[in-house]
Amino acid sequence: MPIRIEHVGRDFGPLRVLDDVSLAIEDGTFVTVLGASGCGKTTLLNMVAGLSPPSRGRILLDGKPIAGPGPDRVVVFQQPGLYPWLTLRDNVAFGLRMRSARQIEWPRVDEVIAVMGLRGFESHRPYELSGGMQQRVALARALVMQPRVLLMDEPFAALDAQTRHNMQRFLLELWEKIQATVLFITHDIDEAILLGDRVVVMGARPGRIVLEQSVPLSRPRQWEMSLEPAFIDLKRQALHILAG
What we know:
Elements: E1 3-12, E2 15-25, E3 30-34, H1 41-49, E4 56-61, E5 64-65, E6 73-76, H2 88-92, H3 94-99, H4 106-115, H5 131-143, E7 149-153, H6 161-178, E8 181-186, H7 189-195, E9 198-202, E10 209-214, H8 229-242
Parallel strand pairs: 3-8, 3-9, 6-7, 7-8
Antiparallel strand pairs: 1-2, 1-4, 4-5, 9-10
Helix pairs in contact: 7-8
């Protein structure tokens, strides 16, 4: 079991954001965390990333407490966070450069660029790319690090509906190839069900897990599955919780 979240709580001063959260994430699975704004989803992801310590409880990776960031975990944020003065290729290689400026594995960089469907744009700057392409660059920058765990904080929230749909489909196809462990934060119910092996629904502040449900849909996933009874039933449960 690569990740175990055990009775975790997080306070910011007198404000209790998370309380008694426990979750086990198996190797190679895709877990989506769903909840309204302010329920502590991003706080939970930041603690798994090692960017913020829990106030109570503990988070383990392979049985060892997470004490800080590590190369085995990479975060993809809502905003791509690309460097405007760097080319696409240099943006993808940025993490490798920080790890070892002298030994960048450029063949690996170029392979990831090709896998992400970005070949031909290597010399472009971020402002020359669409929103969806920028987010692909951000994802490529994460994948080139070969992380064991991919942490995604509402990465498609700022995209228009069609681009978001395309990125969801692309991410599913990519994940089925790389089989990394994914913790994906979202406030979109359909997105959570479509992408996840399991859906975790969090209640309002202080954030607690109210529902943890395996998604009874076969893979590969298609948007037409949103019409299936199992999809509709899980969506109904999530809506009931989020409605309070």
